[in-house]
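Input/output pair, single chain:
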Amino acid sequence: EVQLVESGGGLVQPGGSLRLSCTGSGFTFSRAPMRWYRQAPGKAREWVATAWEGGGLADYTESVKGRFDVSRDSAKHTLTLQMDSLKIEDTAMYYCQTRINDSDYWGQGTQVTVSS
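Output:
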């Protein structure tokens, strides 16, 4: 059974930092593209970043480029999102996602709130 478990969310002031983690199990982590999505209240879920299988390559949505850094550790089956220079508009539930054999799998999400 594929499972994704996120952690690391919380409340932070604008300009602050948070580090999110996602631990995967039940699949070959090193062979799966891993993504972060987020969903703010009243808005559609949006893609944030992808850490491609094999390591080293990553993509980001424009609004987080230069502020967020996605990485993966295949030995620990862990996906990480380092978020710096956080803005109020980064407030959302953040989800870890992967696609395996044309099926999408999601974690339960972790809340990030940026507020003064």
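The radius of gyration is 13 Å. The chain has a mean pLDDT of 96.
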